[in-house]
Design brief:
mainly alpha
């Protein structure tokens, strides 16, 4: 029977990338709803929603449909990853060794660390600018530092404190979001030409869908980090739906607010527009949403730290990093993100848009390979002990099938890419429409499945034998 422990949220988490044993498991599926709902109601989500009308130039209803569609599509992949946590009890990037091999996984893990640094830096900039807007004597640089320190503190305490923080923010941020809608729509009011602004374009619609889908896909590399402590009997279905609706609703609602703000202000400053349109409660609204940034930043830094520790443990398999290692690594990653934030704050919107579009191209083939392998090849069964061996155990040093499919997944997207840095020939022919992520998913998923079906069967036989041996020796997965 699974033991559900209850501890204070301020208890420092001792584990890092190790498999969570059954007696340490705790929590319920509803905790996955609150962590993703609470973590998404923040300023960066509002700003991302505003991109639909400020960058992609869509009118209100087209922006609304595109954002909802993108989130609902991307949320499927995010939630499928979340459902893996209770089954395996390890961080997502450790589990990636089961597809790519011990050294082969480093290709993806290092890219994911870069992703965390980018999101952490983006949140630092936005949080610093918001604090400066709320209280002018606090400079943007000082605000960046303050928001960053909060993230480091939460990372030090780890899993429980982050869950508790986002649980509180689910209620607080949710109530404030509702209040912001009421004030914006009925007290301040919308401009007379609100529904007449902008013109719908195919590139704009596809670009907005892509941005919203990526918002969800960006959680894929670490979503199971926050479900790995869940009891093994939580169930994949319960974990899926709690994560799906928590993340989708928590993203869609503030993104729509961003659309409203973006169409209502003339200067394009979404944070300033939010303060203006919420009047006397504007300071309170932005303050609460800024606390939401701190919660999400803690999650980015926490998971970035686990991924960086995964790299270290791959190179030094005998090393089993614990809480002190997490603290030291978090400090190093914070220093890098702080530097990025201080240097890139003046071109924030341009840098942020380019960053998340580039992320799309490297995340899509990985998520396709991981999900096909987990659900269609391995059927959720892995030999976790092999994840922590230098030679990869039954998964080997490098799974060239996965690595080659991953590289192929990036290459096939190039003609369909549409960014400020590069636009592929097919995207140009489609007037800038970006469907690269759809192409990547469509190509990689079947190729990986058929290429690995036979060897995957052989691997499963080896996995069953290894797991049976572990049980006979008295081990508990």
């Amino acid at each position: 029977m699974t033991t559900r422990k209850t501890k204070n949220a301020a208890t420092i988490e001792l584990s890092t990338i190790q498999q969570i044993s059954l007696h340490e498991r705790h929590g319920k599926a509803r905790d996955l709803f609150t962590i993703w709902f609470g973590a998404n109601i923040m300023l960066l989500t509002v700003v991302t929603g505003a991109l639909a009308v400020t960058v992609f130039g869509l009118p209100f209803f087209h922006a609304l449909v595109a954002l909802i569609a993108g989130n609902l599509i991307g949320g499927v992949f995010m939630a499928l990853h979340s459902a893996q946590g209770p089954q395996l009890g390890v961080p997502q990037m450790v589990q990636t060794r089961g597809q790519f091999g011990s050294y082969g996984s480093l290709l993806v893990v290092l890219l994911v660390v870069v992703m965390y640094l980018g999101f952490f830096a983006s949140n630092l900039v936005l949080g610093g600018q918001a604090l400066h807007g709320l209280y002018a004597p606090v400079t943007t640089n000082q605000g960046i530092l303050m928001v960053g320190v909060l993230g480091v503190v939460a990372t030090v305490f780890g899993y429980r404190l982050t869950h508790a923080y986002t649980r509180v923010m689910s209620y607080l941020s949710g109530a404030v979001l509702l209040l912001a809608y009421i004030w914006t729509l009925f007290v301040h009011g919308l401009p007379a030409d609100f529904l007449l602004k902008n013109q719908a374009t195919v590139p704009g619609v596809l670009g907005t869908i892509s941005i919203a889908a990526l918002w969800q896909l960006a959680y894929a590399p670490y979503v199971s980090d926050y479900s790995r402590y869940m009891p093994a009997d939580t169930g994949a279905r319960a974990a899926f739906w709690a994560s799906y609706w928590g993340c989708c609703l928590g993203s869609i609602l503030p993104m729509i607010l961003g659309v409203v703000i973006g169409l209502s202000v003339t200067q394009g400053d979404v944070v300033a527009g939010l303060i203006e349109m919420t009047g006397s409660i504007g300071v309170f609204v932005v303050a609460v949403f800024s606390f939401g940034i701190a919660a999400t930043n803690a999650m980015n830094l926490y998971c970035g730290t686990l991924s960086a520790l995964t790299v270290g443990q791959t190179l030094v398999p005998k090393w089993s990093p614990r809480a002190v290692s997490r603290l030291l690594m978090a400090g190093m990653l914070f220093a890098i993100s702080l530097t990025l934030a201080l240097l890139g704050q003046h071109d924030f919107m341009v840098n942020y848009t380019n960053f998340i579009l580039l992320l799309l191209y490297v995340l899509v083939p990985w998520t396709a390979i991981n999900l096909v392998d987990y659900y269609l090849v391995a059927h959720g069964t892995y030999n976790v002990a092999s994840f922590f061996r230098r030679d990869g155990g039954i998964y080997g040093y490098v799974n060239w099938t996965a690595v080659n499919c991953y590289i192929l997944g990036i290459l096939v997207q190039i003609p369909f890419m549409s960014t400020a840095l590069y636009t592929g020939p097919v995207a140009k022919a489609m007037n800038g429409a970006d469907i690269s992520w759809l192409v990547g998913l469509t190509v990689v998923s079947p190729i990986y499945y058929f290429a690995y079906r036979r060897s995957g069967h052989q691997r499963q036989l080896a996995c069953a034998a290894a797991n049976a041996s572990l049980v006979n020796q008295g081990g508990v997965r």
